[in-house]
Amino acid sequence: YVAGRMLVAAPRRSVLALSVAANLALLGAFKYLGLATETLSELGVPITVTKLALPIGISFYTFTQIAYLVDAYRAEASEYNPIHYLLFVTFFPHLIAGPILHHKEMMPQFARRETYRLDLSAIALGLSWFAAGLFKKVVLADGIAGFSDPVFAAADAGKFLSTDSAWAGAVAYTLQIYFDFSGYTDMALGIALLFGLVLPQNGAAPYRAASLRDFWRRWHITLSLFLRDYVYIPLGGNRSGPARRYVNVMLTMLIGGLWHGANWTF
Questions:
Q1: Residue 260 known to be catalytic
Q2: Is-contact 176 145, C-beta < 8 A?
Q3: pTM for this one?
Q4: Side-chain-facing half-sphere of 102: CA atoms under 13 Å
Q5: pLDDT tens digits along 66-102
Q6: Rounded distance, CA 72 to CA 51, Å?
Q7: Residues 6+ apart with CB under 8 A from 121
């Protein structure tokens, strides 16, 4: 918050770099120190593997704060109420799996008096969204996991899988991950509506996509937009020829993958 006020008053690159680095340092220490030390240990470097307990939601509020700082530097954001800023960063429904909140979507809602008044219609709608999401998560996703988990466990144990079993497990997991993520998103949207707040859309029937590019416009929309606006475009996007564009795409997807989890399989 203090860095944002400083950037609005005088947009200095040093303040932006320091404040973004501070956010990334905390994220790196808590989330990636274990991966880094484990990787070095496996490469033969005599080092103690260090893993810290991960604060819940640190990935989401780190990205949220970085977006705010960059936009404050660009003179596209400002917030003079520290309570509203604290609420913006710590609003809990989205912290486990998104969506990633953007200041321009949430700050105006926090500033409206109507937001803090009881709205029975919003509560009814929120409970409906929450119930639908809970059904997707507990009944569909967790139910389908009973088919996909044994297949992946068998493959992990080195057992032979028939073509039918392998495809059944892959398709089941495809449905499981969709209903899990879509269900949680619906639950987050529903909880927010209970408080009179509207979270941004985070999915648009991704399995109806006609191409990979279309898929990334439909799946975890707020993350795709963040990676585009705050990683890919600042790296140069497609403005410096095909070779540089491919490098920028690979770096962006690498960052997006590692953001999902501190493991090289991501």
A1: yes
A2: yes
A3: 0.83
A4: 18
A5: 999 999 999 888 888 898 888 888 888 888 877 888 8
A6: 33
A7: none
**Can you list the alpha helix ranges (DSSP code H) found in the chain?**
2-9, 13-27, 33-42, 58-73, 82-90, 103-111, 120-134, 142-156, 163-194, 212-218, 221-227, 233-235, 242-260
Which of 94, 102, 103, 260 is an active site residue? 260
Residue 31: Cβ within 10 Å count:
20
Cβ-defined contacts of 38-43 (< 8 Å, 24+): 39/264
Tell which residue, 80, 35, 81, 77, has the closest CA to residue 54.
35
Closest alpha carbon to 68 in 230, 228, 189, 185: 230
- The three-point CA angle 216-217-220 to 5° equals 70
Q: Which residue in 74, 1, 61 sits closest to 31, CA to CA?
A: 61
Mean per-residue pLDDT over the chain, rounded:
91
Residue 63: name the closest of 197, 227, 221 by CA: 227
Q: Is the dihedral of CA 84, 89, 94, 98 positive or negative?
A: positive
How far apart are alpha carbons 261 and 172 in whole angstroms? 22
Segment 92-144, tens digit of pLDDT: 888 887 788 888 888 889 888 888 899 999 999 999 999 999 999 999 999 99
Q: Left (φ > 0), alpha (ψ -120 to 50) or beta: where does 213 sit?
A: alpha
The answer to whether 64 touches 101, Cβ cutoff 8 Å, is: yes
Q: Give the mean pLDDT of 195-208.
A: 91
Under 8 Å between Cβ of 221 and 200: yes
- DSSP state for residue 211 in the 8-state scheme: S
Query: Quick check: helix, strand or coil at residue 203?
Result: strand
